[in-house]
Amino acid sequence: xxxxxxxxxFIGLTMALGTGFANLVLRITAKSLPENEQTPxxxxxxxxxxxxxxxxxxxxxxxxxMLHPYMKTLGSMPLFHVKLTLVAILTVLIGRMGHLTAKAxxxxxxxxxxxxxFLGRISFFTAIVIVVLAVLTFH
Length: 139
Known about the structure:
With 139 residues, this protein is mainly alpha-helical.
C-alpha cells in the first residue's frame, strides 16, 4: 500500500509541478507573439490549470495515505510542519487561481490574466520549496 501511495504522490507531483513549468514556458512563448495575439493565446492555455489542481488534490490525498508510519514522530519534524503550512498556503493560492481562471475565461483575458501570472509565479516557487522540504524531511 505504501508503494501505491508513493506512486500516486509522484504522479500528483508530476501533474502539479509540470503545470507550473508548462505555464512558465507558455508565458515566455506568449511574449514572443505580437501583442494582439498574446491574450488569446494565454486564454487558450487556461485549461492547463485543471491538471495542476488535480495534481495537488492527488498529492494531498496520497500524502495523508503515507502519513501513518510517521504519526508518533510528527512532533519532532519541524521541516514537515513548515512543509504542511506551505501546502495549506499553496492550496489557498490554487483555489484563488481557479477563481481567477474562471473570471479570465469569462472576460476573455482582462486584469484577471495578469493576477494569474503573479499568483502563478508565487505558487510555482512555493511548490519548489515544498519539494525541497519534503526531501530534507524524508531523506
